[in-house]
Write a structure and sequence with these properties.
CATH superfamily of the largest domain in chain A: Aldehyde oxidase/xanthine dehydrogenase, molybdopterin binding domain
Number of strands of chain C: 5
Chains: A alpha+beta (about 775), B alpha+beta (about 300), C alpha+beta (about 180)
Shape of chain A: globular
Largest interface: A-C, 63 and 57 residues
Helix content of chain A: 25-40%
CATH topology of the domain at 101-167 in chain C: DNA polymerase, domain 1
Number of strands of chain A: 32
Helix content of chain C: 25-40%
Radius of gyration of chain A: 27 Å
Order of helices and strands of chain C: HEEHEEEHHHH
Strand content of chain A: 15-25%
Radius of gyration of chain C: 18 Å
Number of helices of chain C: 6
Distance between the termini of chain C: 56 Å
Number of helices of chain A: 18
Largest sheet of chain A: 7 strands, mixed
CATH class of the largest domain in chain A: Alpha Beta
CATH architecture of the domain at 101-167 in chain C: Orthogonal Bundle
Structural class of chain A: alpha+beta
Oligomer: heterotrimer
CATH architecture of the largest domain in chain A: 2-Layer Sandwich
Structural class of chain C: alpha+beta
Number of domains of chain A: 3
Distance between the termini of chain A: 67 Å
CATH superfamily of the domain at 101-167 in chain C: [2Fe-2S]-binding domain
Chain lengths: ~775, ~300, ~180
């Protein structure tokens, strides 16, 4: 690999999709018009739990302009159940509707107005059943059951064996232990313990879920979907219809935000089923209110016990977590087990007993959401660490520093060694927040550190095509949802092939065109898909070099790529055979063959292309979850807050985030991602929670669900990066984008505790909650 | 999307009333539509006729004179915010209008629409109540005027008859020099509470700081089924020297809180809201007092807007 | 309560009215019914997909367009209200290939991620700067209270707007920290 300085990677090049987005030309699913497409609308259950006694579609079907009207009982010609962990979620409720908002019937009509009219004509008879809404209710012995046991989905290696507890609402139980936590806690100098709660919150991606499905004359299915995993959706649909994967095509335009809300099949199966019944393409677009009834974050109740030695060394962590997974499992079981496995965070803990349950409730299904179960646990552990620091009369920054896992240290037997430097990031955050200086009057500061694994095992493949004119197309199925994936992949390809960014195009994800990528989530795309692209580009490079080497009879070491050409350095070369190095003193190349020339040599004409392939598939390992994380996400947060004691209103005045990213492929995009992560974290920290009463969601629209606004952003917000080139991704990069969200709530909670002497265990830290805690402190 | 309806565009208020009378329950008046159309989209209201008031000449007029400040029903929040007569006669109204909802709602939404809808979280209803404003209604039976407190009956309920059109809000001139403040607080899209304090100051010796409160009006909004005055709290203020208001602020705030009748809801529990009434009555009073003395008080509270 | 089925029974499809409006400087004649929303007419009839439907409740600003220079929520604005008026959508901001300074600033400052809020943000910002060429940060935040973004954390959006305001060369009122 040439050692010349990087031209594209590490530079804040403008996003490749910026122009189309600022001119309104970017296309999202709901902008697409497929000729002849019908419009669908969904009738949803008004009950948290009910038997669907009868669905009367006769009047709807009779309305002119209606192409299809379906209820669960009509789905006899497909397998109506979906789900990446358990196949527990029917496309339309079958016999039972398990949460308020569950699709019970759907219509497809010539236009939206007719579809709405048809929906008004659908009559559904329900018989209300007792419902369980809170974790407490769901876990009570003898509680009504949301499900009675469903088959495994069988797509994913890490979900091949799940442990439901039959006869209960526990969908999956995960336990992990090391050493003897009980004994270590018994013998510890200090044990701190507490229970924490994390609310149910919703992603509120600006674009709600949507899909357009169309069956073609050969019996193949195309779905244009705003999905983060086109390949998973493809598998679901193939199973549903008993079709080979090759006949199912998922095309992904721009996503108006994802954050996990668009992972795994959501609306695509219903769109496909309607399209089949209607005999024409069907567009199914959720409203923002319906998005709240589609997926959310799993709420959680977490009890943690931490044992420390007199000198502050962590000895044991015992954690019991219950995650509220809603009415359908979605990817909840993975959320629970993957997060619980790293419940101990970035610290060295010899004795560990972790036990977590994924629990069904009759509410909107909980699935993936940025952070994937870790925010819930970090809120608990990081708060408790500050409590321990307080009891030991130790500085919380210091206590953390003392216990951090070191660079290269093993997290767990068989798993990837720590590839980040926590101490460095914490040091920088502490300095930026001026930790050692006294806080200004009326201000308090808090810190938090977190560790998150990425999904493993996983697979990413990529193809790079070098065209006859020297331009390049990158084919990869990473989805663009704002995180800048298309740009990063273009930068990587441009770097390896030494071409300008303007010569590289990244095709939109399309399973008919772009090869397999497991998922755009888990902060994995730059690292894994990026490596696949890098490999594919390197494959093309090798082909270019070989063609020239063979043609000129010149050894490959005298060849290099530079600015769209293969360069041949002079026969006597430079010291050490340095070939084609730009820089002072290097001799200019003896010869340059532009790529079109090289291709002409290869093909004997102007035409043809070079195709390179990359496959990144780390595979299963002996690590506890069946795969070793390809990298660790490492991030630290520090907050400075002020408090209006009369009202309990908390203001985050300053916030510093430091993420250890190995190498920032595009610093400006990465900074934007982390700023967004911090502000989204402020959402569940200060404002957001889904409020249910008797199983009915009271605040499923923006009129009553409060997401952060521009004036909520801390007056001083800094997002910085630690770059030691130590990631396993291209050019030493590692994943980022989730890590910076996770420390927000504990950093703010810790700052509040240090400022006002109150420790809250529930989020969000609403003014009323804080006010109540202040009152209790005054009285107590 | 909206279900179909017929849109009528009367050229006079009389025509509008006649239409409303003829069409009855199937018709609603329409101006900016910022609240009406939202409820129609949600299917909570399904009128088959909208009677558009925006073509009625003069209905959007804003004028100040001896009789007070007149704000036409179809004047937008934006127009009120920028109006010279409002700035001169009743500046607090302009400040409140500046903070209603968001800029797009202000560009299109109207004062009359806001009052006639009687959303319990309306800023304007609270402020107009404290300003002792009256609403003017016309119908085939003639014109009548009603104090805002009698017009707004409860959540989304007013004294407007089906064939009546709200044509204007009139703010009478205050007793003495008016110093007023409105503060709203809350994390959500609509405020959790809004407190308006309007002081009528009789200056002495021509010095702003030496006057006394001749008249005091406090209106509490959002926490009760409808905006309500706090007469006990007001009584405590009357006669106070403008320089002594800080001393009575606690007692005034306590009385205001005692008069509130909040319920538990998404905005908070009753006891929290009651305490916040006290806190923000105090803060609004502090701001009004500073203005009475010719200055400005502290400007910022977290999650609150001071107008 | 009457419903659509009754409407059909009562008298057939609602009548359409031909209205004329100028959109992005071009005159259009469209047949609209009284209940048609401006957002749908722009997107579905005039093929201007830049304005988006997100919250559908006037809170988020994704549907913002300018009518006679004033920002409105097209999702809750009757198309007939735009008759005889001039509408500006994001597609009308650029002058051919030349981006509007706000568009360029959004690109340069990294103020675009998923892009779904971008059209609304740009038009809201334009309306602000047209009225207040040199807003302070507080002014910008006040104005953006009704424009939500879930990706960027707002910081770069605010910086981009202030940068354009600064470049306009007017003496600042309040200035930038």
């Amino acid at each position: 690999m040439s050692a010349r300085p990087l031209r594209h990677v590490g530079r804040s090049v403008p996003r490749v999709d910026a122009l189309e987005k600022v001119t309104g030309r970017a296309r999202y699913v709901t902008d697409l018009v497929v000729p002849g497409m019908a419009h669908a609308k969904v009738r949803r259950s008004p009950h948290p739990h009910a038997r669907v006694v009868h669905v009367d579609l006769s009047r709807a079907r009779a309305l002119p302009g209606v192409f299809a009207a379906l209820g669960g009982a009509d789905l006899t010609w497909c397998d109506p159940y979906c789900g990446p962990a358990f196949r527990d979620r029917p496309v339309l409720a079958i016999d039972v509707a398990r949460y308020e908002g569950e699709p019970v019937a759907a219509v497809a009509a010539v236009d939206e107005a007719t579809a709405a009219e048809a929906l008004d004509l659908v009559r559904v008879d329900y018989e209300a059943l007792p419902a369980v809404i809170s974790l407490e209710e769901a876990l009570r012995p003898g509680a009504p059951l949301v499900h009675v046991g469903e088959p495994l989905a069988g797509h994913f290696a890490d979900l091949a064996s799940l442990r439901p507890e039959r006869g209960t609402n526990v969908c999956h139980r995960f336990s992990y232990a090391r050493g003897d936590a009980a004994a270590a806690l018994a013998g510890a100098h200090l044990v701190v313990e507490d229970a924490f709660e994390f609310p149910r919150v919703q992603h509120y991606a600006m674009e709600p879920n949507a899909a357009v499905a169309a069956w073609d004359e050969t019996g193949g299915l195309t779905v244009w979907a705003g999905t983060q995993n086109p390949y998973s959706v493809r598998v679901e649909l193939a199973k549903m219809f008993g079709a080979p994967l090759s006949r199912i095509r998922i095309v992904v335009p721009h996503l108006g935000g994802g954050f996990g809300s668009k992972t795994y099949a959501k609306l695509e199966p219903l769109a496909a089923v309607l399209a089949r019944a209607a005999g024409r393409p069907v567009r199914l677009a959720a409203s923002a209110a319906e998005a709240f009834q589609t997926v959310r974050r799993c709420g959680a109740r977490v009890r943690v016990r931490v044992g420390l030695a007199r000198d502050g060394t962590l000895q044991a962590v015992e954690c019991r977590a219950d995650y509220d997974m809603g009415a359908y499992a979605d990817i909840g079981p993975r959320v629970v087990q993957k997060a619980t496995y790293t419940a101990t965070g970035p610290y060295r803990v010899p004795h560990v007993a972790l036990d977590a349950r994924a629990v069904y409730t009759n509410t909107t299904p909980g699935g993936a959401f940025r952070g994937f179960g870790v925010p819930q646990l970090a809120w608990a552990l990081e708060s408790l660490l500050d409590v321990a620091a307080d009891r030991l009369d130790r500085d919380p920054v210091d206590l953390r520093r003392q216990n951090f896992l070191a660079h290269g240290e093993e997290f767990a037997p068989g798993d990837t060694p720590i590839d980040g430097k926590f101490e460095e990031s914490l040091g920088r955050a502490a300095e930026a927040i001026r930790w050692t200086a006294a806080a200004p009057a009326g201000r308090g500061r808090g810190v938090s550190a977190m560790l998150k694994a990425s999904i493993a095992p996983s697979v990413s493949e990529a193809i790079v095509r070098l065209h006859a004119d020297g331009s390049v197309t990158v084919l990869a199925s990473t989805v663009e949802m704002g995180q800048g994936a298309r740009t990063a992949l273009a930068q990587i390809a441009a770097e390896v092939l030494a071409v300008g960014m303007d010569r590289v195009g990244v095709a939109p994800a399309d399973t008919a065109v772009t090869p397999y990528d497991q998922t755009t989530s888990s902060s994995r795309s730059t690292t894994l898909t990026g490596r696949a692209v890098q490999e594919a580009a390197a494959d093309v490079r090798e082909q270019l070099l070989r063609i020239v080497a063979d043609h000129l009879g010149v050894p490959a070491r005298r060849l290099a790529l530079d600015d769209g050409a293969v360069t041949v350095d002079a026969a006597d070369g430079g010291p050490g055979g340095a070939a084609g190095q730009a820089g002072a003193g290097a001799a200019p190349p003896a010869r340059r063959l532009a790529y079109p020339e090289v291709l002409a040599l290869r093909f004997g004409m102007s035409g043809g292309e070079l195709i390179g392939r990359g496959v990144v598939a780390p595979g299963r390992t002996r690590a506890p979850l069946g795969g070793s994380t390809p990298f660790w996400e490492v991030a630290v947060g520090a907050a400075e807050v002020s408090l209006d004691e009369a009202t309990g209103a908390l203001t985050v005045e300053r916030y510093v985030s430091v993420a250890d990213v190995g190498r920032a492929v595009n610093p400006l995009i990465l900074e934007g991602q982390d700023e967004g992560a911090v502000v989204q974290g402020l959402g569940h920290t200060l404002f957001e929670e889904m409020t249910y009463a008797d199983g009915h969601l009271l605040n499923g629209t923006l009129l009553a669900y409060r997401v952060p606004r521009a004036d909520d952003v801390p007056a001083a917000l800094e997002c910085r990066f630690t770059e030691n080139g130590d990631g396993s991704g291209p050019f030493g990069a590692k994943g980022a984008g989730e890590g910076s969200l996770i420390p927000v709530s504990p950093a703010v909670g810790n700052a509040l505790a240090r400022l006002a002497g109150i420790r809250l265990r529930e989020l969000p830290l609403s003014p009323e909650r804080v006010w109540r805690a202040l009152r209790a402190r005054r009285r107590g | 999307m909206l279900r179909p309806f017929a849109l009528h565009r009367p050229a006079t208020a009389e025509e509008a009333c006649a239409l409303l009378g003829r069409l009855g329950d199937d018709a609603v008046p329409y101006a900016g539509g910022t609240e009406l159309l939202l409820l129609m989209k949600e299917g909570l209201l399904r009128p088959r006729h909208l009677v558009d008031l925006k073509r009625i000449p003069g209905l959007d007029a804003i004028a100040a004179g001896g009789g007070g400040l007149l704000v036409g029903a179809t004047a937008t929040h934006r127009a009120v915010e920028r109006s010279a007569p409002v700035a001169a006669a009743c500046p607090v109204l302009a400040s409140v209008a500046r903070h209603v909802a968001n800029v797009r709602v202000r560009n299109v939404g109207t004062v009359g629409g806001n009052l006639a809808f009687a959303d319990p979280h309306s800023d304007l209803a609270t402020v107009f109540l404290a300003l002792d404003a009256t609403v003017a209604l016309v119908s085939p039976r003639g014109r009548r005027e009603l104090p805002v407190g009698d017009f707004v009956r409860g959540p989304w309920e007013t004294a407007r008859e089906a064939d009546e059109v709200l044509v204007a809000v009139v703010v009478p001139p205050g007793l003495g020099r008016v110093a007023a403040a409105y503060v709203k607080f809350g994390v959500h899209e609509r405020p959790t509470l809004g407190i308006a304090v309007v002081l009528g100051v009789e200056d002495r010796d021509g010095r702003a700081g030496a006057g006394r409160v001749a008249d005091a009006r406090i209106a509490i909004g959002c926490v009760n089924p409808r905006p309500a005055r706090a007469p006990d709290a007001e009584a405590r203020l009357r006669g106070c020297g403008v320089g002594d208001l800080e001393d009575v602020a606690g007692a005034v705030a306590e009385r205001a809180a005692a008069s509130a009748d909040p319920a538990d809801d998404l905005h908070g529990s009753a006891d929290y809201k009651r305490e916040m009434v006290a806190v923000f009555t105090r803060r609004a009073l502090r701001a009004a007092a500073a203005r009475a003395r010719g200055g400005e008080g502290p400007a910022r509270y977290a999650h609150a807007v001071l107008a | 309560m009457s419903g659509p089925a009754d409407d059909r029974a009562a008298g057939g499809a609602p009548a359409a009215e031909a209205i004329e409006l100028v959109v992005n400087g071009r005159r259009h004649r469209v047949a609209v019914r009284s209940h048609d929303l401006l957002l749908d007419v722009l997107r579905d009839r005039l093929d201007l997909k830049g304005a988006k439907r997100s919250c559908d409740a006037q809170v988020c600003g994704a549907c913002t367009v300018l009518v006679d220079g004033l920002a409105v929520s097209a999702c809750t604005y009757l198309a007939v209200e735009a008759a005889g008026r001039s509408v500006l959508t994001v597609e009308g901001l650029a002058d051919g290939d030349r981006l509007h300074p706000l568009q360029q600033a959004f690109v340069d400052h990294g103020a675009v991620q998923c892009g779904f809020c971008t059209s609304g943000m740009l038009l809201s910002a334009k309306a602000l700067l047209d009225e207040q060429p040199a807003p302070s940060r507080v002014d910008v935040l006040h104005h953006l209270r009704g424009s939500l973004c879930r990706c960027t954390g707002y910081r770069k959006i605010v910086e981009a707007i202030l940068a354009v305001a600064g470049d306009a060369g007017h003496g600042g009122r309040g200035g930038r920290p």
